[in-house]
Amino acid sequence: MQKISSILLENPFVLAPLAGYTDLPFRLLCREYGAALVFSEMISCHGLVYDQKKTLSMLASHLDERPVAMQLFGSEPDIMGEAAKIIAEHPIDIIDINMGCPVKKVIKKGAGAALMRHPKLAEKVISEVVKNSNKPVTVKFRSGWNHHTITAPEFAKMAEGAGAQAVTVHARTWSDGFSGTVDWDLLSRVKENVSIPVIGNGDIESHDEGLSMIKKTGCDAVMIGRCALGAPWIFSPEQPMAGMRVRTKALTRHLELIESFLSTDRSLGKIKNHVCKYFKGTPGSASLRTQIFDTKSFQELVDLANTLYLSAR
Fold this sequence. Notes:
Strand content: 15-25%
Largest sheet: 8 strands, parallel, barrel
Structural class: alpha/beta
Number of strands: 10
Order of helices and strands: EEEHEHHEHEHHEHEHEHEHHHH
Low-confidence stretches: none
Mean pLDDT: 94
Number of helices: 13
Helix content: 40-55%
Radius of gyration: 19 Å
């Protein structure tokens, strides 16, 4: 059994934070399919401190998804500390700091992967979050800024010294974005450099591949992001053949959770994006995508999903 501080994980498979996707319904779904720990979308420290309603709503949680980590981003130590205080008051288990996001609008603010270029500032951010939180703090970052500056082993050591209880390493550089090859050897070097748990991240496409990453790198756990979209069964050790029956069963459950926890009318476009992921790469996916986006209401979407499930083999 894996452990982050006092938080016990029933297996080594973790759902990554994904902007626009890892909301409460999807986190609950992935927990039902076997994810041992789930992460929220990244949450702005400024949005929390300035009491922005939309940002505060991202802290919504549920007992059934625990253990859950809320991911915070920002580059100002004092604001990050204040935001950590706010998050720590909620019924969650871990505060994660994003130091790996490659998106330009985040980088321009000096947050996300930009902090890898300024390790002293990153250290202050981590220290302030740790100081202001009664929850374990973890940090997610990349291999380095580019292939000339592979700094993850040293960065992990710094994070541990600043009080982080675990680190997640997306084994690509900022310059790679989401392309290029994931460097498993780097994960081994990070693991050798720290005594806290290391979670490996990057292009895990199956349960078996996740187990292989753990075996070959020594990582304590693996984090799965984009490959879980439309395929939450990736977290299950009993890997089903992803036929239409399996896909539509997961989808109908996902829609049930969405109906329970989201305002469906105001987020219909976002929901349709989620739904399309379930049919990516399947025969007739282009036609299904058209049908999905032609629906005019959440109920029509549910009816379509039910029809597809009943007709699936």
